[in-house]
Structures are given as C-alpha cells and as structure tokens.
Amino acid sequence: MNQIDAATRGIVTPEIEQTSASERIPVERVLEGLRKGRIVIPKNNQKILKKPCGIGEGLKTKINANIGTSPDESDVQTELCKLKTAIEAGADAVMDLSTGGNLREIRKAIVSKCDVPLGSVPIYEAAVMAKQAERKFPDMTGDEMLSAIELHAKDGIDFVTVHCGVTYSVMETAKKAERVTDVVSRGGSLLLEWMNANKEENPLYARYDDLLDIARKYDLTLSLGDGMRPGSLADANDTAQFGELMVIGELVRRARRAQVQVIVEGPGHVPIHLVEANVVVEKSTCDGAPFYVLGPLVTDIAPGYDHIVGAIGGALAAAKGADFLCYVTPSEHLRLPSIEDVRAGVIASKIAAHAADIAKGVPGAADWDRAMSEARRELDWEKEIATSIDPERARAIRASSPPRNPEFCTMCSDFCAMKKSSPVFRNKG
Question: Can you give the residue ranges of every domain in the chain?
C-alpha cells in the first residue's frame, strides 16, 4: 500500500498524520489532497522516515537542498557534513546529485544519515556507468536507464527527477528556438544527446508505463524534470520550455491514473514579470500538481550572490502558488557548493518560503513575525535572537558590536525609537 492507496481507502498513515499535525490542518484535507494529486508525501515504502513532509496545495512552502559530488570533488565525508548542515539550517528535503566517485557507496551513506525525504537523479548514474565502461551515453539502453532508477528506489531514495518530457518532438522544437544558453539541465542534455544520436524517442517517455510500475512498487515520487528549463532570461517562456510542459501535463495525468505520486519541476532563469505566468501555466496545465522550482533566478548577472537572486524569484513564485523551492547557493554557476554555501542557500530559501507563506495565508505563518515584533517592542534581545530564522548568526552579529547600554543596540543606542515611543502608546493612565 502506498500513500495514495491509503488516502483512497481513508486510511491515515503515520506520514499523513504527521503532515496534518505539522501543517495545522485537518487529516481529511491531507487525504483529499493526496487523492487529487495536489499533495504528495515523498517516502519510499522500503524504509522508515523520521521527518516526512507534505508538499502541495494549502501546505507550507518546502525547501530542498542539493548536495553531491562531482568528478573533480568526491569526498563522501564532506557531503555528509553538507547534509547535516542543510537539515540543521531547516531544509525539508535533500537531493543527492553525485556524479563523481562510487555513486552507490555515496548514496547509501547519505541515505543512512538522512531523516528527511531524499531525492536523486538516476540518469546521472547511468551516464557515469557508461563512462566507467568506456561507452558513450547514446549506447545506453532503455533497460539500463530504468535499472538505474530501480536501483535508486531499492537504496531508499524517496523521489527521483526523471526527464520524461524531453521528447523527440520537443527536441526538434528546441532546435528552432534559437536559445542563448541552449539546454542547461544535465539530465535533459543527456537525453537530447541520446535521441539525436539514435534518432529514437526518449526511452523514459516511450517506456513511461514501465517507469510508473517501478514508482508504484516503491511508492517513489516522480519529479518530472524540466529538461528545457531556461538558463538565461532571454530563453524564458519559449516554445521549448512550454512544449515540454505540455508533455508533462499528459504525464501527470497518466501517473495519477496509476496511483503514483508526482510533482512538476519548473524554471530556471525567469524575469520577475514572467514568474507569475510560469506558476499559472503549470498549475493549469498539470491540474494543480505540486510545483517545484529552481529559484527561479530573476537576473543572470549575480554570480556569487545567486542565493539572493533565487530567493527573490522563489518568494514571488511561491506567493503565486509554487509549493517547493530548490535552493540556490552563492556558488551557483561558479563551483561545487561548500558547507557554508549550503547553509547560506537554505537560509535564503527559508526566508523566501516564509514570506510567501504569509502571502498565501498558511496557518500560523504570520504568528512567527508577530512574536518577533513583540520581542523587539519589549527590547527583549534574547527572545528576539531565539525567534530569528538563524539565531546563531543573529547572536554573533549583536556580539560583534556591543552597546554601552545592553538595553539597546549600537544602531540607535539611547535614541531607540521604540523605547521613546512606547510611553506614548503603552501608558494608559
């Protein structure tokens, strides 16, 4: 039995009960969301997950943090430190995007330490296997690609990115689009290479029913990857991006008929004035399926600060209905993220998600801000620091510039506006 089976039968699984409690919503709303495919709870049925989370309509906006090795840097202990840092900073889910070293060994180590939903991109494993066997990726078979996906499911992965919407027709459309940055999705580019060489349909699309069988067996949530996501503002909302989305809409409906949980991945680099349109089109095309966005990045010019760029786009996208934000780190476009990059990326995305939750009226979201404001009014520095999104950093900043009078801070000192105005409003005698 998977989560959709349970919801259909009215059975409350531990994960459904936990989602209801953490979201402050009735169990029936979670059950209804699962039945309609507007909520997912990524959790492989082969394992126990300590911190499951619901993603989707009416729930708090969730954050994903990407970690993983590359051919240039592949130290598993470093990745485990990134995992720990991401979860401690507040990530709701993590993805292992490893492409260097012993991928299965790395994945098993991460699975053993990860108590939040864990995702992966199995096509990377297929590509690395081809390279290790001194074969080209276009020589890989559909069976080998599906085997890589099932291997990840067996190892305890909860959700997988699969680029099933990058079809042969979409590839031909993309060739005519005259993009500035072509294709920036690694998984998408691999399948384009395969189709172009073999002159055949994408095996993940052609054999989608076989993929659904694997997903249903393990209750593996499918994250339908945006292989045609724009890598520059100039490419946003073009025929290739929306052509893939139309295919993904069809795949969402097929997954729901097979009682497989599914989310939809989105862009990418998108100018601010087009962000809302991306959310609206995805929600209408995919019948309200949970929307998972990378950023979106609202300008191309800020390497080193792309966690801020992504947070701007993420806040706007989530306020308009996106459900799941993939963090962007300061090192995006520059190098593999460090442990500190991971922390900065998670915090930036958490701020974006919380701002959006206030806009969406998520139960309890604004209570946090009121508690902070009350602490400030009372000049209760300990409460203010404890209430902050990153208490460690808040405490360090205050300690770095100690005031003469500990009642105040060094910004205003005894010219503190709230100290002066409080008697005007608070003394009722």
Answer: 3-360, 365-426
